[in-house]
């Protein structure tokens, strides 16, 4: 990042981190060659992963990584929203609460006690929730992590004022375009591809394993049909619940389905 | 068969065929299984990219083929709704598997293709002619249903006023070594659509497998020319009339067996499709309750359309670099099962799964007849096998037919 003054007309970009692993911001950094090109066209006013310099707001575009996991985060996001004309959230944490939202089904104190050496130092909310649960969000970019190509397309789209080119189809569409043999059909592996939004390029099935839903529920889904079919083919319900309750487990469509599977399970368990 | 060929055959059927042109179009010769490798070599030496069936990732797929040893000899496939498993069968020959997830579509109408490249210089757009040269394709192992699918895609991409240039280029130079099926999967229903199990037309060479050798029918001048080159490496023996008849009988026997197939408990149900009056049957039942019922199972996942050898929908996007001065025009497979496919002015006109499934089925089996003069279904069964929840086109049609308020026979 250059220190010299940028012309006023350049859109100003700020990147924020909430509860997350930084993987999505790294995707932005990873796209390095193109990032330099990006830096010519926008003023990167705040991106701590890349530079410790923070220029004060307001900003034209705010990119938020991470979920709301502490009381402090809950306050901070309000200011972020006020500072940014467009607010876009990136990654599973920011768009659905992330893997840390697994605690939404458990007892926070138990988790804290079992994970941290000195639980008293931990001040966390009982839930991990997506940014859109707290402030209005202009666009959500899914993925764990997000795809660098999609991220740059999103930023370019904001600059050009067009709709971002983000597919709403299922992972299966990418899987078939890639010519991968379906792991569900040919190996009986329960795969979430049919109900998951495309974006990753169907990487996992190409490496002989199931899709586990990194891009969250596809626009048109039918989870009940899929899990019912897998269960009939012999996958235990418990395994299906775990599969659906994963990285994007707190996304509404996935959340409802894992709750349904679990409640049907407990109903069945009753004599 | 043509009278001329018979004369050639009948004069001395067992004499090795000779002459510059090799065996004539319409004639039959024996290819011992060892000649598959020299056949591949001849095609490759001719500058062709040879594709053939091979076992990979638990299925028989089409891949680049250099070694005849990579062909799936000894493998058969069990197929059912949402189910595909390879089984080793010591009795099985080179081509006793049937169709896998790939079809000729993957090569002639590729899943992704750059169809244009544009640059903006000094405010003016210029098209750059830098699309890569592709070698001609030779595909070994295509079935009757594959050839039927190709003939249907020909109508789509070449039949109208707008000819697809990429498809046209690849199609013109395509060399096809077909295979007559000796075995059908439970999901195969080409006997209902008239597309198989024999490969009746549209090939350059066609193989019927016998123990240790193939009876090879010459289907085109190009096929004859390839055999002429093969003949320089290995002597070729003509088939006798009775041997030709035995080959034809093998396909007929399978076809009859397919018509007579019965459900056996514990085994995948054999599929068939009653195509009688199917166009009107579907058009008359656009409000049939079955569409809602299938929508409770359908995932809108697009698999059925993308594996279908005849589905041709695509989406084109202009992919610009950050500067916006260099644009690639990319085309990729699309599907009527996505909301985007029918999105207009921000809203999808086919927002329910029922409406999307109905669109697919009625287009495939009825609309195509109006649009292209042919059904869009070859009976290959791919959409049944590769649907993750095993939705079955034949079952859906049968359910509508069984309860059609408009069908007298109901
Ligand atoms: S492997 Fe998974 S993503 Fe790929 S087609 Fe099968 S179900 Fe869909
Ligand atoms: S549908 Fe017919 S032609 Fe196609 S693979 Fe099956 S048996 Fe062969
Ligand atoms: S509709 Fe199904 S059975 Fe018919 S050609 Fe397409 S994939 Fe094959
Ligand atoms: S019919 Fe099957 S393969 Fe086709 S979209 Fe529905 S669930 Fe997917």
Please describe what this structure looks like.
The complex is a heterodimer of chains A (271) and B (410). The model of chain A is unreliable at 1-7 (pLDDT under 50). Helix content of chain A is 41%, strand content 10%. Chain A is an alpha/beta fold. Chain A has 12 helices and 5 strands. In chain A, helix 11 (237-244) packs antiparallel against helix 12 (252-269). Chain A is globular. Chain A has helices at residues 23-30, 32-41, 71-83, 91-96, 108-115, 148-160, 171-177, 183-187, 203-206, 223-232, 237-244, 252-269, and strands at residues 12-17, 43-47, 59-65, 84-90, 139-141. Chain A folds into 2 domains: 12-160, NADH:ubiquinone oxidoreductase-like, 20kDa subunit (Rossmann fold); 171-269, no CATH class. The longest helix of chain A has 18 residues, at 252-269. Chain B contains 14 helices and 16 strands. Chain B has helices spanning 3-11, 36-45, 105-108, 144-158, 165-172, 190-193, 221-233, 241-260, 278-283, 290-295, 303-307, 353-372, 382-385, 393-402, and strands at 28-32, 49-56, 59-64, 75-80, 83-88, 112-121, 124-127, 137-142, 175-179, 205-210, 213-218, 237-238, 314-320, 326-333, 343-344, 347-348. Chain B has an 8-stranded mixed sheet, with helices on both faces. Chain B has a 4-stranded antiparallel sheet with strand order 7-6-14-13, with no helix packed on it. The radius of gyration of chain B is 23 Å and the shape is globular. Chain A binds chain B through residues 34, 37-38, 41, 152, 156, 160, 165, 167-170, 172-173, 176-188, 191, 193-195, 208, 218-222, 225-226, 229, 233, and chain B through 56-59, 61, 82-86, 100-102, 106, 111-112, 296-303, 306-307, 317, 319-324, 332-333, 335, 337-340, 353, 356, 385-386, 388-390. Bound molecules: iron/sulfur cluster (4 copies). One iron/sulfur cluster binds at residues 171-172, 175-176, 180, 182-184, 191, 193-194, 202, 205, 211 of chain A. Residues 307-310, 364, 377-383, 393 of chain B line the site of one iron/sulfur cluster.
